[in-house]
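so my prof wants the structure for this chain in the tokens format not the other one, which i didnt know existed until like an hour ago. anyway here's the sequence
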Amino acid sequence: MAYRETEKMRQRKAEARKRIVECTYQCVEEGGFRSARVTRIAGLAGVATGTIYRHFESREDLFAEIFRLATQREVDKVSEALATSGNAAERLERALRQFAERALRGPMMAWSLIAEPVDPKVEEERLAYRKAYAKLFEKAVRDGIAEGCIPDQDARQSSTCLVGAIAESLVGPLSPTQTSQSACATTDDNDSLVDSIIRFCMQGLTGIRR
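here's what i got, hopefully its the right format
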């Protein structure tokens, strides 16, 4: 007689998977992907290490899942900012500010998503999400050109440059070495940094000195 999985068993598996994902997310949030060891994750989730591999083919697959989950949250926040009121340039500035401020509020997770050395499978996800950000920015730039608040330009190339500029400008401030040395950084310090990043991005985009 063929084995038939019961609803209760399916629910237990789903709950175990959820705990594994949540505990891995916690590990990455606290110490980056490098701190998310399978044995630690299993201990936090209350499962055997073999259980993790029944839900995910490899450690890299698990990390890719966490990367997708964490980055999609950030993409959604940028999308929300771009959907607010105001002209396209104002909305784009708001979205860039949202990106930078959220990164600085959660520096370890942001570092993990933006710059931490990762396995090829996770790096593929990083590239895919950079394209997702660029696509959102591209639409805003095109809207701005149509509205007349942004000069005519190659919207696709400009959006790619925006993603690169804001991500690269945050690498130093977010790096674990830097953040451990500047644990006493104030909100004013972060505000000044964000203002500087946004000023650079918007001046490059609009040609208007801010």
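also thought this was worth mentioning. The CA atoms of residues 27 and 36 lie 5 Å apart.
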